[in-house]
């Protein structure tokens, strides 16, 4: 613990030093910073904040008149709502747990590889699938999952899966979707975690080694606690993305001729409400529920992970 | 300022001579593209702006989705839309969230009644609500019975005429020629339309705002048993008609009940059955020994006109051409318009690809589609795909799954606003 406190203090001192050295440089950087974020902020307002406000308006009205919680109650009573919550929940549990465990593990392993070219090419390999957008990676996985065309058909047959319909059955789907999401998303996070590991002072690792800590002990007591913020950051972003599950089941639905139902996830249900039932109010209510849940859990992880603590 | 003046000038010009500057926005699928291009060539005075989409195939809902967006935005409606589904009139004929119904009423003065009377009797039933016609059928898709005469002759079997014969043929094949088969139910349309609709099973009925589905009715149970029996002896496969597994075994297909459009999509398709000329026969539909001589229907697209259009005259010209022009109508299938259908049937018969009386078989099927099937604002295919396809794949039977299937259809009906019985 004492070791940790020392490192926490060190960058702080460095920061104070810089501040006292030249205040005007920081002000200039601040102005440039504003320029950099201005375009993002503009887009965020136009495509994020304003639509959210419109959704809040829609969710509490019906044909322009205030409707209280009617829209929410109608959506909650829908026979498709609870299964969709269950599907998304199960997917998130499978995916987030595997993401946290495997990404941290893989990052630690890659970081501990001493051979420079091997470590670099490993990171590059991990990252490649991340270059594919969600829908195209699903297309690729469709071929992998269909035993009649799959290059790993023997594995599928070994698991007792003899058709695409069998491979994407409802009870297996959270795992299938988690594998797809992990395959596309994990590489990028491994690279981020690698950066986080690089940030840990060599002296600290050195000191741990002198104290007799092996690689596992070092990882558990030094590296992982110091990666806490990055892990929290990954969980927040992945959670927000995961609750919005839409493209993967939608493409799977069309490819599996409807076996993956059109109302599999909450976002799909919101889509059906808006465009199948012409009920934009109900659709907005579902979206708002998603927003509140995501926001609540993000706040939890932000504080739990100490994301906004300055060091 | 200058730009405004030009726009004002242009719109004055457009108002002055509508025939010269008429522009139509048409949404249709890729299969319809040649037909739209044929119209453009025949009518250069009308500019067609074709936007290709999926034609809402597989009940994807593209049509309703895009109209929903236009309704919400208050602009962006097309002039004409093609949909492969024939139940869109259920929503397109109704006002939505205070916006007028999208579909233009086509009888009652919009098109000549004499022109509308030229359709095959019953062709406009799916798009007629309370006596108002909301769309024009592109093609008819009655279910008939296709069999491979060469194979049946080789095995020494007579072609079946009833569903009972069909099942008995399955037993003989399974015993003497394992591997040969009589159909597939891997897609979401074969089960509901080819087997249940043709088998007169009252599982998808609409009466006003009431939806009815009876999976315990006598005919429903008969179809359940037929499917379970033939899946069990492997003469019905669980593969998709358009999947790799089906195509790989297509030379073992002995017979199959299916829509008129199987002609082009399956038999004369090098990526499908790829039949040899003269091997296959289009026969009249199967029926129950103790039942009426009726059949089912698998799709048959529909053209809709927008009630928002500013070019009603051009829309009329377009619609009449696209459904009744003898070279264009039907877009490869059996045209719904009678005079075009006769020409198409003659051409098919004279090509001699199909053995037997092709024209008589298709005409008989087209005139006997069972009217007990409903066209509500949802499709039986989604419930089939969600409940039955995975259920059968995991070894369950129709008898096990029928109640769940019924419940899912009733739930869907309730969600879109029907009273459920």
From TrEMBL, chain B:
UniProt-listed InterPro entries: Bact_solute-bd_prot1 (IPR050490), SBP (IPR006059)
Gene3D superfamilies in alphabetical order: Periplasmic binding protein-like II
One of the Pfam families matching this protein, by short name: SBP_bac_1
Cellular compartment(s): Periplasm
SUPFAM superfamilies named in the record: Periplasmic binding protein-like II
GO terms under cellular component: periplasmic space
UniProtKB keywords: Cell membrane, Lipoprotein, Membrane, Palmitate, Periplasm, Signal
Signal peptide: 1-21
Membership in a protein family: Belongs to the bacterial solute-binding protein 1 family.
Name under which the protein is recorded: Carbohydrate ABC transporter substrate-binding protein
Organism field: Devosia nanyangense
């Amino acid at each position: 613990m004492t070791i940790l406190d020392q490192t926490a203090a060190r960058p702080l001192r460095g920061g104070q030093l810089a501040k006292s050295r030249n205040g005007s440089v920081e002000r200039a950087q601040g102005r440039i910073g504003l320029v950099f974020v201005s375009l993002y902020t503009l887009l965020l307002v136009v495509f994020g904040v304003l639509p959210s406000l419109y959704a809040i308006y829609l969710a509490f009205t019906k044909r322009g008149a205030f409707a209280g919680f009617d829209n929410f109650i109608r959506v909650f009573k829908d026979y498709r709502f609870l299964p969709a919550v269950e599907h998304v929940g199960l997917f998130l549990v499978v995916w987030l747990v595997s993401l946290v465990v495997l990404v941290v593990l893989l990052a630690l392993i890659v970081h501990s590889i001493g051979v420079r070219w091997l470590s670099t090419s490993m990171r590059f390999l991990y990252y490649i699938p991340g270059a594919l957008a969600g829908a195209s990676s699903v297309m690729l996985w469709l071929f992998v999952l269909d035993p009649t065309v799959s290059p790993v058909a023997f594995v599928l047959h070994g698991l007792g899966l003899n058709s695409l319909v069998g491979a994407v059955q409802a009870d297996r789907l959270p795992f299938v979707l988690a594998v797809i999401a992990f395959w596309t998303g994990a590489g990028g996070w491994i690279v981020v975690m690698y950066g986080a590991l690089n940030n840990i002072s060599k002296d600290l690792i050195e000191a741990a080694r002198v104290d007799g800590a092996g690689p596992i002990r070092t990882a558990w007591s030094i590296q992982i606690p110091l990666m806490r913020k990055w892990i929290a950051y990954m969980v927040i972003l992945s959670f927000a993305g995961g609750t919005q599950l839409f493209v993967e089941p939608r493409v799977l639905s069309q490819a599996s001729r409807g076996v993956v139902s059109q109302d599999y996830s909450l976002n799909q249900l919101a889509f059906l409400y808006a465009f199948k039932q012409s009920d934009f109010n109900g659709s907005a209510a579902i979206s708002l529920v998603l927003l509140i849940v995501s926001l609540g859990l993000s706040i939890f992880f932000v504080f739990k992970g100490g994301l906004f603590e300055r060091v | 300022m200058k730009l405004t003046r030009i726009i004002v000038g242009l719109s004055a010009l457009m108002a002055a001579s509508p025939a010269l500057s008429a522009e139509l926005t048409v949404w249709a699928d890729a299969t319809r593209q040649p037909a739209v291009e044929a119209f453009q060539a025949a009518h250069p005075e009308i500019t067609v702006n074709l936007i290709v989409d999926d034609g809402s195939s597989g009940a994807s809902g593209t049509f309703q989705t895009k109209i929903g967006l236009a309704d919400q935005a208050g602009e962006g409606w097309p002039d004409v839309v093609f949909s492969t589904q024939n139940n869109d009139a259920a929503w397109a004929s109704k006002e939505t969230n205070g916006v007028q119904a999208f579909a233009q009423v086509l009888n009652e003065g919009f098109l000549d009644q004499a022109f509308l009377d030229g359709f095959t009797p019953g062709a406009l039933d799916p798009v007629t609500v309370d006596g108002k016609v909301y769309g024009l059928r592109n093609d008819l898709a009655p279910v008939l019975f296709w069999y491979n005469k060469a194979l049946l002759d080789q095995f020494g079997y007579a072609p079946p005429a009833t569903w009972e014969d069909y099942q008995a043929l399955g037993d003989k094949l399974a015993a003497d020629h394992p591997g040969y088969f009589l159909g597939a139910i891997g897609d979401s349309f074969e089960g509901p339309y080819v087997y249940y609709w043709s088998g007169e099973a009252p599982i998808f009925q609409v009466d006003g705002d009431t939806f009815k589905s009876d999976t315990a009715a006598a005919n429903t149970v008969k179809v359940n048993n037929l499917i379970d029996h033939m899946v069990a002896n492997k003469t019905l496969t669980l593969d998709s008609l358009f999947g790799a597994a089906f195509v790989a075994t297509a030379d073992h297909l002995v017979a199959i009940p299916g829509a008129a459009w199987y002609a082009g999509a399956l038999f004369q398709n090098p990526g499908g059955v790829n039949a040899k000329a003269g091997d296959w026969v289009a026969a009249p539909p199967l029926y129950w020994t103790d039942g009426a001589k009726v059949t089912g229907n698998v799709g048959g697209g529909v053209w809709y006109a927008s009630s928002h259009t500013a070019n009603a005259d051009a829309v009329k010209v377009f619609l009449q051409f696209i459904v009744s022009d003898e070279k264009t109508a039907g877009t490869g299938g059996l045209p719904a318009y009678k005079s075009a259908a006769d020409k198409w049937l003659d051409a098919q018969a004279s090509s001699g690809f199909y053995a037997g009386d092709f024209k008589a078989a298709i005409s008989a099927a087209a005139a006997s589609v069972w009217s007990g099937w409903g066209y509500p604002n949802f499709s039986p295919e989604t419930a089939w795909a969600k409940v039955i396809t995975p259920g059968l794949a995991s070894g369950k039977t129709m008898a096990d799954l029928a109640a769940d299937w019924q419940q899912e259809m009733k739930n869907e009906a309730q969600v879109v606003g029907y009273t459920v019985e």
